[in-house]
């Protein structure tokens, strides 16, 4: 008999505490970010597709066309082209194409790069119906960034 | 206008009342549907529907259009006729219940002598539609849902009736207006707090709402008795459920919270409707609040709670009330 009433009182008490919790949650400001209208800064750790790093000293990329990224890429989505020019030491990058439809975002290219010429971009709004939108020319992207 | 004079006034009264009632049923469903989703959002610290119209106000209208436009699929081996009848059965009785609800002193379709009994009878009809829907769907989930609904409603009808009976003994009438008038300034909730709590718990179970929403437990039974329903058939069930919620809350308001009585306003015989709606929607808020607070009970817990707590307590409450009424008179 004692148990019967004990259960009733502890039960009723915990139910009331529960109602209190939800009522407090109701008057708290809500935490939703209304996405298309409102955006929050994303973490610097975010791993988007790769982009060429802009070197502040020279004002251009740091790529030496060593082809390490192209060779190491497990998905085969990178194609780098470079040429030797008169009077310039080493190779000059002519195009850096990234087929993002195949990329698995593993980041091996970023790790393997001897000059740290690659970084992850912060791009995340990538929806498109056109497959060509995901074939990036990173050199052009670098120029577009100014 | 000449034509209207030829019709008997009573006939006109019936038609106008019916139109107002059906319009109100749909409006109430939209208001409650919106309130439920909005409040569910607030309880979880998110804003709820926001995209359609200002503050998502038109969301329910869009949903209504979507549901009307959808196909009503009838399963191959179901009872074709009864499958169509069941949603109507879910909707019509609760719409009928508006006949006796006293919105204010003068706004009421009919003041029957047996108003309360009529309402409870109508409420008991609602479970028939649930059983029918589950039975004719030819789907095991639907059947399980229906069986659970019947077991639950039979169990919870008893404490509900016993707690209302205690009030009837005090006010000495079954007419809805009579019960409101018998209360005076001291509402029955102060005289019968235990009966009110028992009634409210039983009412939540009776309307199959969380934490007692076992007939439509998604995790176990997909959607319970309305698994096979789509389009307007489904929305009639939802309409029935929301109207039923309004209906149990209006009984609670009439019986325990003094109905339309409150601080007098101008044209009090009509403006009492404001107090009535304030009280009803206050209770509906509590119902929504409870739904978004508690997880679903297990079936044995549900029945144990009823048979071990609600029924003995309502019996004791009834006994004390009867003895008290006898001694005081």
Overview of the molecule:
The complex is a heterodimer of chains A (146) and B (329). By secondary structure, chain A is of the alpha+beta class. Chain A contains 4 helices and 5 strands; from the N terminus they run αβαββαββα. Chain A folds into 2 domains: 1-31; 50-145, 2-Layer Sandwich (Alpha-Beta Plaits). The model of chain A has no long low-confidence stretch (mean pLDDT 86). Chain A has a 3-stranded antiparallel beta sheet. The longest helix of chain A is centred in the N-terminal third of the chain and has 26 residues, at 2-27. Chain B is mostly helical and 329 residues long. Chain B has one domain (73-328). Chain B is built from 13 helices and no strands. In chain B, helix 2 (9-43) packs parallel to helix 12 and helix 9 (193-206) packs antiparallel against helix 11 (231-256). Classes of the chains: A alpha+beta (146), B mainly alpha (329). The A-B interface holds A 4, 8, 15, 18-19, 21-23, 25-26, 28-32, 34 and B 39, 41-47, 50, 289-290, 292-294, 308-309.
Topology:
The complex is a heterodimer of chains A (146) and B (329).
Chain A: H1 2-27, E1 50-52, H2 68-72, E2 78-84, E3 91-99, H3 108-112, E4 118-120, E5 135-137, H4 138-145
Antiparallel strand pairs in A: 1-4, 2-3, 3-5
Chain B: H1 2-6, H2 9-43, H3 59-69, H4 80-96, H5 115-136, H6 140-171, H7 176-183, H8 188-191, H9 193-206, H10 218-221, H11 231-256, H12 268-291, H13 299-328
Helix pairs in contact in B: 2-11, 2-12, 3-11, 4-5, 4-11, 5-6, 6-7, 6-9, 6-13, 9-11, 9-13, 11-12
Summarize the structure.
The complex is a heterodimer of chains A (146) and B (329). Chain A has 146 residues and is α+β, with helices and mostly antiparallel strands.
